[in-house]
Amino acid sequence: MWKPQTKEAILREVRIREWRKHVGETFIGALKWLLTNSLKGIVATLRWLRWQSAKVACDLEGSRLLSQRYDKLLRLGETVYAMYRAGEISWQGIEPLCQELEEIDRKLDAAKILPLQVLPYEPESEQTLQISASASQ
Predict the structure, then answer these.
(1) What pTM, to 2 d.p., does this model score?
(2) Burial of 65 (0-12, 13-18, 19+ CB in 10 A)
(3) Which of 22, 89, 97, 112 could be stapled to 83 by a disulfide with Cβ–Cβ 3.0 to 4.6 Å?
(4) Contact, 49 vs 120, CB < 8 A?
(5) Sign of torsion, CA 45 51 56 57?
(6) Tens digit of pLDDT for each residue in 74-118?
């Protein structure tokens, strides 16, 4: 089974084993780096998508309130004009519509004051990218 080997053959086999070990460690390190950076990218993308969807939801809510306000103003104008044409303008018919408009305006003002509840996506600056690149090497 074992045959006698020269010193050079033994050293060559040792070098081959060390080289294989080094290649394996390098491959594992590169694979870890690739997976880590891929996961960082996925997390950053998910954060951005979450922020974007929250922003769109806020915009949709604001648009809905503005649409309601416009509809109420239109109804108020039509009611006042109908009363004017009939010659009987009364505050009792107009006041509930004005109160509804005031409530919608309060909701709009509150929506403008409230910031988004989700942390915004902040792309990394070149300096932090260079620092992380130099640290990984």
Answers:
(1) 0.48
(2) middle
(3) 89
(4) no
(5) positive
(6) 888 888 888 888 888 888 878 888 888 899 888 888 877 555 555
Sequence ranges of the domains in the chain: 7-118
DSSP 18-84: HHHHHHHHHHHHHHHHHHHHHHHHHHHHHHHHHHHHHHHHHHHHHHHHHHHHHHHHHHHHHHHHHHH
134 pLDDT band, cuts 50/70/90, is low
Residue 130 to residues 37, 41, 45: CA-CA distances in angstroms? Answer: 14, 16, 20
Sign of CA dihedral 75, 77, 80, 81: negative
CA gap 37, 46 in Å, rounded: 14
The per-residue pLDDT for 4 is 79
Q: Which residue has the higher pLDDT, 91 or 14?
A: 14
- Asked if 123 contacts 45 with a C-beta cutoff of 8 angstroms, the reply is no
